[in-house]
Amino acid sequence: MKTKxxxxxxxxxxxxxxxxxxxxxxxxxxxxxxxxxxILYLLYxxxxxxxxxx
Length: 54
What we know:
By secondary structure, the protein is mainly α. It is built from two helices and no strands.
C-alpha cells in the first residue's frame, strides 16, 4: 500500500509541476496543492516509515 501511495505522490508532484504555469490562477493553486500533498507524503515516508531499522 505504501508503494502505491508513493507512486501516486510522485505523480502528484509531476502533474503539479506540469500545471504550475497554467493559464488561470485557479489552475496554479491546484498545482501548488498537488505538489504540496505529494511532497508532504514523500517526506512522511522518508522520515517516519523509512527511519525504522531492525
